[in-house]
Amino acid sequence: MSSLQVELVAADRRVWTGEATMVRARSVDGELGILPGHTPLLGVLVAGDVVIHGEGGEQTTTIDSGFISVEHDRVTIIAESVGAAGQS
User: What's residue 87's pLDDT?
Assistant: First the structure.
């Protein structure tokens, strides 16, 4: 099964990096769901939760605003500030 390579970065640090099966985030155009094979995308994110689905469960963190880039199963999320990531 294909996976995504995900990197979540705050202005001052790398918050999380790893493999995921799906990433959810909220953009100015609405909720985004990114799966392996997604078309290239560059979007503006608004305040809300970013949910990263992986083999070990979900990582959920809150961002204030930022950007998301998707290309060749690589997802990069850059946010001004990122709350603590927790597993559920």
Answer: 46
